[in-house]
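Quick start: read one record
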Amino acid sequence: MIEKMSAKPEAGEPEKAGTLYVVATPIGNLEDITLRAIRILKDVRLIAAEDTRRTRILLDKYLISTPLTSLYDQNEAKKSGLLIAKLLQGEDVAYVSDAGTPGISDPGYILVRDALSQGIRVAPIPGASALIAALSVSGLPMDTFIFLGFLPSKSIRRRQLLTSLRAEERTLIFYESPHRLLASLNDIAEVLGDREVVVSREMTKVYEEFLRGSAAEVTAGMGNGSVKGEVTLIVAGRTGEVAEYSDAELFSLCGQLRRDAGEELSLRDTADRIARQTGVSRRRIYRLLLFP
């Protein structure tokens, strides 16, 4: 069933609930906010913020005195109910994350989902997004891309994810923490080959920096790998043929999958999953498992 939600109530129909505004905020430079976002933040009855201290800096700059309340990962499930109650009473509420567009590797999903389930209007107030800003100046293809959030923190999981992307032709976009960046670049070079990458750091801020080149070149240019600030990592998609897997490599991947699964996987399930990861035919993997 397709649900239509009007931007305004029908003529003569009283507005029964407020609107939840999902407001994008600057990712660094406080001037990167829209006039509409400033107006909405002034007009709503309450602003829910991932970090009230950081949001207060933005509000003070634009003389916004709207009351603040916190909503972050650890309290979102509980706090959403309180905000939904205010919305149902007719109060307009805005939600902002620390920076950029809420819900993109940030809190906000639960609140939006709960509001929609109650028939509450949810309105986007578009603006800054780190992944789009980085992609726009990357010099890599922008017509199709795939965003995968933060890379796994553990190398085994990270390499498994990268292995599953070896055949992906679209530009790859990740967020990464600065202290894991060097390890991730090394894994990218080993698993995906020495592809072109762009490391975008501290975008829109005083020390904005873009490192471009092959994964090995960027790694070498980082020296000791000490990096500060928020990082968006962009990796070129596959061009040409997919790298070949030896039987030994495939067998090793199957063994690792079955160990990590923590459950007894059938040979067919194992073959299916590794085939999706690598692009190798399921028949070849299944025969390898039957006759190692």
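Residues 247-290 form one domain.
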